[in-house]
Write a sequence for this structure.
């Protein structure tokens, strides 16, 4: 991957007008400033570190990643971007995944209505996946900062972010069954509160772990790339509105 475009940061994909000063892109001469993830390098030192194979290895450094994340969330609007993206991924993407698993594949669930089942699953996903989304956004944004134009930057962001989220949610069906699936304490409680005995309760057909993960990722890749694109459009619109007010 080429060096980071001058003045581009992990936030640039959301706000192309947001450019740090040129000095911010030049790492200081001190050894401390040159280390990834430190306040001295902030996002600027990342371009120097990323050059060549050493840059790829830098992504494995917790201090390097921390620097990207810290710089990203130093902006108040980044927290709005996180909330908007998480809502779209958890409830929008979750609606498609619910239809696929509970209705199309007939995997079953608590004896409650489909709307309540979707709300339960998506709310659990929102809470459980929020930390992962909080990490994916700045890292995908930082990767996109290597693009030379805004359109390519957006494309890189949605592909990187959507693919990362699809991989993170690959074990989702198993976690769902363990936490809120049929027979769990949560499922029993919501069935007691909301169940009326008439909700569909099909018998789930067992499949292998490999098959379950494969079909989860196969649907998740295009789905979450699309949802990331929609969320990005909404966040950029909010940012533009903020600039004009």
């Amino acid at each position: 991957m080429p060096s980071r475009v001058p003045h581009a940061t992990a936030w640039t994909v959301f706000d192309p007008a947001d450019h740090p000063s040129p000095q911010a892109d030049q790492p200081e001469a001190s050894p401390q400033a040159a280390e990834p993830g430190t306040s001295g390098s902030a996002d600027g030192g990342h371009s120097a570190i990323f050059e060549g194979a050493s840059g790829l290895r830098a992504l494995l450094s917790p201090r390097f990643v921390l620097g990207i994340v810290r710089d990203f969330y130093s902006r108040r609007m980044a927290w709005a971007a996180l909330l908007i993206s998480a809502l779209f991924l958890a409830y929008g993407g979750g609606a498609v995944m619910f239809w696929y698993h509970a209705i199309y594949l007939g995997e079953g669930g608590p004896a409650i209505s489909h709307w309540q089942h979707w709300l339960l699953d998506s709310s659990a996903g929102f809470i459980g996946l929020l930390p992962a989304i909080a990490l994916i956004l700045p890292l995908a944004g930082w990767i996109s900062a290597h693009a030379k134009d805004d359109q390519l930057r957006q494309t890189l962001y949605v592909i990187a972010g959507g693919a990362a989220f699809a991989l993170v949610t690959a074990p989702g069906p198993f976690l769902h069954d363990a936490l809120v699936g049929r027979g769990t304490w949560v499922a029993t409680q919501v069935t007691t509160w909301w169940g009326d005995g008439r909700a569909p309760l099909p018998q789930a057909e067992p499949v292998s772990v490999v098959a379950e993960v494969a079909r989860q990722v196969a649907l998740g890749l295009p789905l979450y790339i699309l949802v990331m694109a929609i969320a990005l459009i909404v966040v950029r619109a909010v940012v533009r509105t903020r600039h004009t007010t």
